[in-house]
Amino acid sequence: MPDAMTAPATRPRLVVGITGASGAAYGVRLLERARDLGVETHLVVTPSGVLNVHHECGLDRRALESLAAVAHAPGEIGACIASGSFDTAAMVIAPCTMKTLAAIAHGFGDNLLTRAADVTLKERRRLILMVRETPFNLAHLRNMTAVTEMGGIVFPPLPAFYHRPQTIAELVDETVERVLQLAGIAAARPQAWAGLGQATPASPSRT
Q1: 15: exposed, middle or buried (Cβ count in 10 Å: 0-12, 13-18, 19+)
Q2: Burial tier of 130 (Cβ tally within 10 Å: 0-12, 13-18, 19+)
Q3: Secondary structure class of 67 (helix, strand, coil)
Protein backbone atom coordinates (compact mmCIF):
# COMPACT_ATOMS: atom_id res chain seq x y z
CA MET A 1 0.00 0.00 0.00
CA PRO A 2 1.52 3.41 -0.98
CA ASP A 3 2.54 5.75 1.78
CA ALA A 4 1.70 9.45 2.06
CA MET A 5 4.84 10.48 0.19
CA THR A 6 4.17 8.35 -2.90
CA ALA A 7 0.37 8.12 -3.00
CA PRO A 8 -1.50 10.24 -5.58
CA ALA A 9 -2.02 13.77 -4.30
CA THR A 10 -5.44 14.45 -2.77
CA ARG A 11 -4.72 18.19 -2.48
CA PRO A 12 -2.45 20.50 -4.49
CA ARG A 13 1.27 19.97 -3.98
CA LEU A 14 3.68 22.85 -4.37
CA VAL A 15 7.47 22.67 -4.23
CA VAL A 16 8.92 25.81 -2.66
CA GLY A 17 12.56 26.79 -2.83
CA ILE A 18 14.16 29.61 -0.84
CA THR A 19 17.65 30.84 -1.68
CA GLY A 20 19.92 33.58 -0.36
CA ALA A 21 18.67 36.53 -2.39
CA SER A 22 17.01 39.43 -0.63
CA GLY A 23 13.24 39.11 -0.39
CA ALA A 24 12.91 36.26 2.09
CA ALA A 25 9.48 37.62 3.06
CA TYR A 26 8.11 36.36 -0.25
CA GLY A 27 9.08 32.78 0.49
CA VAL A 28 7.85 32.93 4.08
CA ARG A 29 4.51 34.44 3.11
CA LEU A 30 4.14 31.98 0.23
CA LEU A 31 4.41 29.10 2.71
CA GLU A 32 1.94 30.73 5.12
CA ARG A 33 -0.62 31.48 2.44
CA ALA A 34 -0.29 28.05 0.81
CA ARG A 35 -0.93 26.45 4.20
CA ASP A 36 -4.02 28.62 4.64
CA LEU A 37 -5.30 27.40 1.26
CA GLY A 38 -4.75 23.73 2.08
CA VAL A 39 -1.78 23.27 -0.23
CA GLU A 40 0.79 20.59 0.59
CA THR A 41 4.15 22.34 0.42
CA HIS A 42 7.55 20.68 0.02
CA LEU A 43 10.29 23.08 1.08
CA VAL A 44 13.98 23.18 0.13
CA VAL A 45 16.10 25.99 1.61
CA THR A 46 19.74 26.58 0.75
CA PRO A 47 22.20 27.41 3.57
CA SER A 48 22.36 31.04 2.45
CA GLY A 49 18.56 31.04 2.31
CA VAL A 50 18.42 30.08 5.98
CA LEU A 51 20.81 32.89 6.86
CA ASN A 52 18.80 35.43 4.91
CA VAL A 53 15.44 34.33 6.34
CA HIS A 54 16.91 34.79 9.81
CA HIS A 55 18.38 38.19 8.92
CA GLU A 56 15.32 39.61 7.14
CA CYS A 57 12.45 37.84 8.92
CA GLY A 58 13.88 36.79 12.29
CA LEU A 59 13.07 33.09 11.78
CA ASP A 60 15.47 30.21 12.40
CA ARG A 61 15.50 27.03 10.34
CA ARG A 62 13.08 25.19 12.63
CA ALA A 63 10.53 28.01 12.56
CA LEU A 64 10.79 28.29 8.78
CA GLU A 65 10.46 24.56 8.17
CA SER A 66 7.43 24.42 10.46
CA LEU A 67 5.54 26.47 7.88
CA ALA A 68 5.84 23.68 5.29
CA ALA A 69 4.10 20.32 5.17
CA VAL A 70 7.44 18.65 4.41
CA ALA A 71 10.98 20.06 4.57
CA HIS A 72 13.88 18.55 2.60
CA ALA A 73 17.60 19.23 2.97
CA PRO A 74 19.39 20.53 -0.15
CA GLY A 75 21.68 17.50 -0.12
CA GLU A 76 18.80 15.02 0.07
CA ILE A 77 19.03 14.18 -3.62
CA GLY A 78 16.98 11.01 -3.14
CA ALA A 79 13.93 12.91 -1.84
CA CYS A 80 10.53 12.40 -3.46
CA ILE A 81 10.61 15.75 -5.27
CA ALA A 82 13.74 14.63 -7.16
CA SER A 83 11.55 12.34 -9.28
CA GLY A 84 9.03 13.23 -11.93
CA SER A 85 6.85 10.38 -10.67
CA PHE A 86 6.01 12.53 -7.64
CA ASP A 87 3.02 14.57 -8.76
CA THR A 88 3.15 18.31 -8.07
CA ALA A 89 1.22 21.31 -9.36
CA ALA A 90 4.24 23.58 -9.72
CA MET A 91 7.49 24.77 -8.20
CA VAL A 92 8.25 28.28 -6.98
CA ILE A 93 11.67 29.58 -5.94
CA ALA A 94 11.10 32.65 -3.78
CA PRO A 95 13.45 34.40 -3.85
CA CYS A 96 15.76 33.03 -6.54
CA THR A 97 19.42 34.02 -6.70
CA MET A 98 21.24 34.55 -9.98
CA LYS A 99 23.42 31.55 -9.11
CA THR A 100 20.37 29.30 -8.84
CA LEU A 101 18.93 30.79 -12.03
CA ALA A 102 22.20 30.02 -13.84
CA ALA A 103 22.26 26.44 -12.54
CA ILE A 104 18.70 25.85 -13.75
CA ALA A 105 19.34 27.52 -17.11
CA HIS A 106 22.28 25.19 -17.75
CA GLY A 107 20.79 22.00 -16.31
CA PHE A 108 23.25 21.89 -13.44
CA GLY A 109 21.24 19.80 -10.96
CA ASP A 110 23.88 19.60 -8.27
CA ASN A 111 21.51 19.70 -5.29
CA LEU A 112 17.89 18.92 -4.51
CA LEU A 113 16.72 22.45 -5.28
CA THR A 114 18.13 22.56 -8.80
CA ARG A 115 17.25 18.92 -9.41
CA ALA A 116 13.62 19.55 -8.45
CA ALA A 117 13.58 22.53 -10.81
CA ASP A 118 14.97 20.37 -13.60
CA VAL A 119 12.29 17.75 -12.89
CA THR A 120 9.60 20.43 -13.02
CA LEU A 121 10.78 21.54 -16.46
CA LYS A 122 11.16 18.05 -17.88
CA GLU A 123 7.67 17.08 -16.72
CA ARG A 124 6.29 20.26 -18.36
CA ARG A 125 5.04 21.62 -15.05
CA ARG A 126 5.15 25.25 -14.05
CA LEU A 127 8.45 26.54 -12.69
CA ILE A 128 8.23 30.07 -11.32
CA LEU A 129 11.45 31.88 -10.45
CA MET A 130 11.13 35.02 -8.34
CA VAL A 131 14.54 36.32 -9.35
CA ARG A 132 16.09 39.09 -7.24
CA GLU A 133 18.85 41.28 -8.60
CA THR A 134 19.17 44.75 -10.04
CA PRO A 135 20.40 45.90 -12.42
CA PHE A 136 20.64 42.81 -14.61
CA ASN A 137 23.82 42.08 -16.50
CA LEU A 138 23.90 40.23 -19.82
CA ALA A 139 24.50 36.83 -18.20
CA HIS A 140 21.39 37.31 -16.04
CA LEU A 141 19.29 38.24 -19.06
CA ARG A 142 20.54 35.34 -21.14
CA ASN A 143 19.87 32.89 -18.33
CA MET A 144 16.35 34.23 -17.91
CA THR A 145 15.82 33.86 -21.65
CA ALA A 146 17.09 30.28 -21.54
CA VAL A 147 14.75 29.33 -18.68
CA THR A 148 11.83 30.98 -20.47
CA GLU A 149 12.60 29.04 -23.64
CA MET A 150 12.54 25.84 -21.56
CA GLY A 151 9.04 26.67 -20.34
CA GLY A 152 9.88 28.31 -17.03
CA ILE A 153 8.34 31.57 -15.84
CA VAL A 154 10.58 34.41 -14.69
CA PHE A 155 8.63 36.45 -12.13
CA PRO A 156 10.68 39.20 -10.47
CA PRO A 157 8.74 40.35 -7.39
CA LEU A 158 7.89 43.78 -8.72
CA PRO A 159 5.05 45.23 -6.60
CA ALA A 160 1.92 46.75 -8.07
CA PHE A 161 0.60 50.02 -6.69
CA TYR A 162 -2.81 50.33 -8.38
CA HIS A 163 -4.53 48.85 -5.31
CA ARG A 164 -2.91 51.56 -3.16
CA PRO A 165 -1.06 49.39 -0.62
CA GLN A 166 -0.47 50.97 2.75
CA THR A 167 2.17 48.58 4.11
CA ILE A 168 5.03 46.39 2.94
CA ALA A 169 2.96 43.39 4.02
CA GLU A 170 0.24 44.35 1.55
CA LEU A 171 2.81 44.57 -1.25
CA VAL A 172 4.16 41.14 -0.39
CA ASP A 173 0.68 39.63 -0.05
CA GLU A 174 -0.46 40.77 -3.49
CA THR A 175 2.66 39.45 -5.20
CA VAL A 176 2.37 36.11 -3.41
CA GLU A 177 -1.28 35.81 -4.34
CA ARG A 178 -0.45 36.35 -8.01
CA VAL A 179 2.30 33.74 -7.86
CA LEU A 180 -0.01 31.17 -6.26
CA GLN A 181 -2.61 31.77 -8.97
CA LEU A 182 0.08 31.40 -11.64
CA ALA A 183 1.13 28.14 -9.99
CA GLY A 184 -2.37 26.79 -10.55
CA ILE A 185 -3.73 27.17 -7.02
CA ALA A 186 -7.39 27.82 -7.77
CA ALA A 187 -8.19 29.27 -4.34
CA ALA A 188 -5.67 32.11 -4.70
CA ARG A 189 -7.29 35.53 -4.89
CA PRO A 190 -5.08 38.27 -6.34
CA GLN A 191 -6.67 41.65 -6.89
CA ALA A 192 -7.80 42.05 -10.49
CA TRP A 193 -7.48 45.38 -12.25
CA ALA A 194 -11.04 46.68 -12.47
CA GLY A 195 -10.27 49.84 -14.40
CA LEU A 196 -9.69 53.40 -13.31
CA GLY A 197 -12.19 54.65 -10.75
CA GLN A 198 -13.33 51.15 -9.80
CA ALA A 199 -12.95 49.71 -6.30
CA THR A 200 -10.67 46.73 -5.76
CA PRO A 201 -11.21 44.01 -3.15
CA ALA A 202 -9.17 43.89 0.03
CA SER A 203 -6.03 41.75 0.25
CA PRO A 204 -6.30 38.36 2.01
CA SER A 205 -6.04 38.97 5.74
CA ARG A 206 -3.10 37.68 7.74
CA THR A 207 -3.77 35.37 10.63
Answers
A1: buried
A2: buried
A3: coil
Neighbour count for residue 24 (Cβ, 10 Å): 27
Query: Is residue 1 predicted with pLDDT exceeding 50?
Result: no
Query: Which of 27, 9, 13, 6 lies closest to 132 in space, CA to CA?
Result: 27
- Proportion of the chain above pLDDT 70, given as a percent: 91
- Tens of pLDDT, residue by residue over 90-118, are 999 999 999 999 999 999 999 999 999 99
The per-residue pLDDT for range 25-74, each reduced to its tens digit, is: 999 999 999 999 999 999 999 999 999 999 999 999 999 999 999 999 99
- The candidate with the shortest Cα–Cα distance to 172, out of 190, 154, 186, 187, is 190
Nearest to 170 by CA among 36, 29, 56: 29
Query: Which alpha helices (H) appear in 98-202, and where do they start and end?
Result: 98-105, 112-122, 138-149, 168-182
Torsion of CA 78, 83, 85, 88, to 10 degrees: 110
* Closest residue by Cα to residue 90 from 117, 131, 127, 119: 127
Helix (H) or strand (E) holding 31: helix 24-36
* Cβ 69 vs Cβ 40: under 8 Å: yes
Task: Please say whether the beta carbons of 70 and 64 come within 8 A.
Answer: no
Q: What is the pLDDT of residues 138-159, one digit of tens each?
A: 999 999 999 999 999 999 999 9
pTM listed for this prediction = 0.90
